[in-house]
Amino acid sequence: VAGYIPTRERFNAEYSGGVENIAYDAHTGFQSAVFLRTVKLKDFPWNGWLTLGIPTKPGAAWNPVGGLSDPAGRLIWFALGDPALFSSPWSASWVPNRVTATLESTSRGVAVPPDALLPEVGTGLLRNVAAGTRARARVQYRVLTSAFHDGTRMSVTDLLYPFIFSYRWGAKGGQRGYDPTVDAATALLRERLAGLKLLRVEADVLAFGDVKLTYEVPVVDVYVNHDSPDPLEVAALAPPWSSVPWHVTALMEEAVARGLAAFSPEEARRRGIAWMDLARDKKLKAALATIVDEFARQSHVPLGLRGSVTAIEARDRWSALQHFYDTYGHFLVTNGPYRLHQWSESSAVLQVFRDLTFPRGVGSFDRYAYPLRAFITKAERRGDQVEITAEVEKVERFGRQYKIVREPFSKRAFEQEKRPLPVGRYVVIGPDGEVVKVGAAQPTEASTFSIALKEKLKPGPHTIVVALELEGNRVSQPVKVVLWTP
Fold first, then answer.
1. DSSP characters for 352-417?
2. How confident is the model at residue 454 (pLDDT cuts 50, 70, 90)?
3. Whole-prediction pTM
4. pLDDT tier for residue 183 given thresholds of 50, 70 and 90
């Protein structure tokens, strides 16, 4: 660590015009995906206006590939886009949002099935993997799909098209196009992706009284050459997901191929053309509208999806995009919780996208609004292990008020309340100052945490540094130091 810069975030907490339930990122503050997914208006919890201000006017172009890169653009994209996972506000890990992931990893690796697919470098065409291919890990994703803002329903082709795009536009010397910003952003994915395979599409049915809602949930295996002690870090490498429908991505590609605009500012300067803006560039939008009309007549399917998308499906997609543009005047279509409604040189108005297919309801991430801590009250040596007793914090709400209380940890109580169980993180340091063991202790049925030290340790005093992680919070944890002599 070279140093720290403290920052202050200001908000209105008054009842009539203020906000509550505020989550923020330990590094970036309100400039985070979690803030917009927890903050609530005090006076009008369901309808009203949330006004956000930033120090500078919007300067970056608004496109989801190489734009929305300044403070205003990032904040807008946190609202319009809906990532597969987003950065955890209180740790260096990730928060699952539109995917859930199960990781399989062994020291020998896992075999990639021969019918798994991998995009071809330069074209993005999906090809079968080479026989005998192995990967370090297999991540199985369940993907929570929903409708896009133009009314089209997300499909498996939307999940696959980002991989196709990355290999087409991120490979220098490719046959179809290249952008250095895409190259840099997708280099790690292309280096470590070993294959992907659609297993099935499941149907989740949720009942609300007499109303039943059916959600399509694709299940996809992704094979990667990536290791990490944190399974979510592996899951965040190459999730099968897109906040943008394939037809909008294909429209942007066609605009770049015709020399109308470039994804990134660097490529726009090099080619002497516009930096692509799907909302504020009137000239570009008129040209894009002409392409959409042309593609609707042709039932256009991009090269990478031919054979996977029918002519009828393609025509319906382009027709929906035509209607969306006629209604809202822009092409920035996503499947996020907000929709771009109005804009000017210095502001943007976003509307909540209320659609029954949207899988994340109010309160899905409320636990991040109040970072809680756990405290080690006792650490005792019992044989070849250290047994830890803890107290934990919880939030008690009453009306619009809340308080944080501290109580003895009970595993049964956590399971009944469906709260994530705390985890004991520890480091064992030898007498020479070297780290000899790092691990995580799960709670036992007796509601304690045990650190086993069965390994043969060097003679001399050892130091065990341990802290309890509660609900993903690894910031400002109380730390306990335990001395141990073999």
1. E---TT----TTTTGGGSS---EEEEEEEEETTEEEEEEEEEEEEEETTEEEEEEEE--HHHHHHT
2. confident
3. 0.92
4. very high
Report the pLDDT averaged over residues 299-312. Answer: 96
- Residue 196 bridge partners (DSSP): 117, 222
On the question of pLDDT at 106 being above 90, the answer is no
- What percent of the chain has pLDDT above 70? 99
Q: What pLDDT is recorded for position 229?
A: 87
Percentage helix, strand, coil for the chain under 3-state DSSP, each rounded to 5? 25, 30, 45
With b meaning 16 or more CB within 10 Å and e meaning fewer, what string describes 355-382?
A: eebbbeeeeebebbbbbbbbbbeebeee
**Is the CB of residue 453 less than 8 Å from the CB of residue 436?**
no
**pLDDT at 174 exceeding the cut of 60:** no
Write the CB contacts of 207 (distance below 8 Å, at least 6 apart in sequence). 213
Residues near 12 by beta carbon (within 8 Å), at least 6 away in sequence: 18, 19
Confidence of residue 322 (pLDDT cuts 50, 70, 90): very high
Q: How far apart are CA 330 and CA 264, in angstroms?
A: 19
Q: Is 450 exposed, middle or buried (0-12, 13-18, 19+ CB in 10 A)?
A: middle
- C-alpha 52/C-alpha 12 separation (Å) is 11
pLDDT of residue 56: 87
Encoded tokens for 418 = 């469906």
Give the pairing of strands 462-469 and 479-484: antiparallel
Structure tokens at 300: 């256009």
Supply 390's token pair: 């803890």
CA atoms 185, 190, 191, 194: torsion sign: positive
Task: Residue 112: count other Cβ atoms within 10 Å of its Cβ.
Answer: 22
**Nearest alpha carbon to residue 163 among 211, 202, 120:** 120
Query: What's the token pair of residue 34?
Result: 């979690």
| Parallel, antiparallel or unpaired: strands 261-262 and 274-275 | parallel
The sign of the CA dihedral 290, 294, 296, 299 is negative
User: CA–CA separation, 321 vs 327, rounded Å?
Assistant: 10
